[in-house]
Amino acid sequence: xxxxxxxxxxxxxxxxxxxxxxxxxxxxxxxxxxxFTHFKNQSAIFDVWRMAYPNxxxxxxxxxxxxxxxxxxxxxxxxxxxxxxxxxxKLYVANADxxxxxxxxLKGPSTPKIIDxxxxxxxxxxxxxxAPNPAQSSAPGLFLIGLHIKPAxxxxxxxxxxxxxxLSGGEPNRLTNIQALALFGNFSPDKKxxxxxxxxxxxxxxxxxxxxxxxIDDVGQIYGTVSWIP
Length: 230
Prior knowledge:
This protein is mainly beta. It has a single domain, classed as 6 Propeller (Neuraminidase), CATH 2.120.10. 5% of the residues lie in helices and 39% in strands. It has a 4-stranded antiparallel beta sheet with strand order 1-2-3-4, with no helix packed on it. A 4-stranded antiparallel beta sheet has the order 5-6-7-8, with no helix packed on it. Strands 9-10-11-12 form a 4-stranded antiparallel beta sheet, with no helix packed on it. It is globular, with a radius of gyration of 17 Å.
């Protein structure tokens, strides 16, 4: 639908069945593709797809994956890969078409088992992501993910913070100490700020996690997303 809401939303495509859920949509910067997560209720399978806008074919880009985000130059894709055996999350980076996918290795005592809401840094050299303190990321989060409850993949049940790690991997660097639920971030057009949605409200911070300013202090304990007007 147009940004000003002047016409009704138009359906892009019809899911194959009522068991197929489509969510977490993400535009490519040039507006030529929309990326999304597909989740099938019966089999509890997550995968990442994209579709050329407006009438292109559907393309599966990654199995056992969710939360796709595209780099600012439109060339790279980051997403969360889910180990079906252990239910541990891993960060993966690929080309925008899903090719050349590889894991970003996380090392050290700060390595989380639950990873959420990844996005590229402004210079595209690091990944910023949401995760709980490693000491918290065992009991409730993994239990819920093991049951394939969707909110657990968005850390809706585990207080989390923002972290960063270089594209080459390494020990994650903790950016905030807010312990918020269901974090989702989006860079401003000038890349100087990040707007953050969480279950208690919306705030703005600098890319290093500082300068937090509360914009809305109550969104009704739900999870969602936030975007800037270009």
